[in-house]
Amino acid sequence: MVKDLSGNKKGSYRIGDSTFMQLLKNILKRILPKHTIQWLNRRRENVRYRSWRILWSIREQTMPQKYRHDPYEINEVYWVNPEKILYRTLKEFNYLRDHNRVVGGNWDIPLSLFEENDFFQAFSQRIKEDRLWSDTTYYKSHLSEILAGKVQWGCRNKEEWDQRCAMLDSIYQDIKSNGYHPQKIEDYISVNIGRDGQLFFNDGRHRLTFCKLLEIHKIPIRITVRHAKWIMFKNELFDYAKSRKGKVYAPLTHIDLQSVPSGYGHKRFELIQKNITAPNKGVVLDIGSHWGYFCHKYEELGFDCLAVENDSENLYFLEKLKKTEEQNFSVFNKSIFSLDLDEKKYDIVLALAVFHHFTKEEKTYNQLIHFLKNLRVGELFFEPPDPEEPQMQNAFRNFNHKEFIEFIIKNSSLNEFKQIGFAEDGRKLYKIW
Description:
Layout: H1 19-31, H2 34-62, E1 78-80, E2 87-89, E3 101-103, E4 110-113, H3 118-128, H4 137-147, H5 158-178, E5 189-193, E6 199-203, H6 205-213, E7 219-227, H7 228-242, H8 267-275, E8 283-287, H9 293-300, E9 304-308, H10 312-324, E10 330-332, E11 346-352, H11 355-358, H12 362-374, E12 377-383, H13 401-410, E13 417-422, E14 428-432
Helix pairs in contact: 3-6, 5-6
């Protein structure tokens, strides 16, 4: 395949800068005011995003079969919080014959909550209310069918039905004592993934019931079917990452996306988590949230989170990924300087690799000062760049780390700081409180 002057293969969707375009940009930088160049860059990013979205919409409509192949490694076993498996659907698939199939259509329309099924209701009554099996509607209805001559789970009479119920009690007690450790494929709970990434129950309702009632935090499961539109989204992620050295910015938390390579790992989150005052409650403000990694992590821990992101491309993925895991954190899709700070106090503010962008121009530098003066915050986690980085060379203010922290303390209600470690890229992380 022939390459163009930018090094991209002709026929690929990626739009690169040719040698001529690079020369033109250098000329424009010399003759146009700085604020005009910045406006053009913002417009260019917006056009690039809109073009990319239109392209993917056309692909989805005209070449759906091409994108039914999962571009990422598929695992046989995934670990998930059973509380993430909320719904069952009208159609269930064979966990052996349909394993790892991609299926389109409307099979993923939720039918009912998993916890509304008759077995969950009955066993919940046994555990929480200490009921006898014979006092549950589940037991009575199936016994009636058995006595009417209908075989249920191999049971042909009351004695066999009682033995089966006793066996289920035994499995529950074993999981309670030893944990859920399936040995055979048929012992696994299986789920399906819908078009938006939701996990739907497919098979293994007894074991899922037991794990939910025992409040086990993580269990091994197998994925049977993935919706075709979900696979299309995974291909979208793959193509996005392909133009960025094969990586996204931060880890993706959905169980079916954890094999997507990322530039940052979990190290920043782990360092921050070790150093926060209240490790499982409070309000988090994530400035420049990108795709919402920290909001996903902190919502899982019980925090209320606000993600601030106004880049169109990042916002698209942020909203999609929020929907995949049915998260509740709020999203503010405007400049952080438009956020109303009058009524809200934030226990934790995350300013990771973001504040330096505001010191590049005088206008946003002054807006940052105003923001800090009005911010009510318990503790702020800060990741500044190296002042020698090329992006900072023509900045309005290019602070070293000590100067930047002193600037934040001077203009805010915060008084103390300490370094808490290093991110994967070698940048230092600070806690300011």
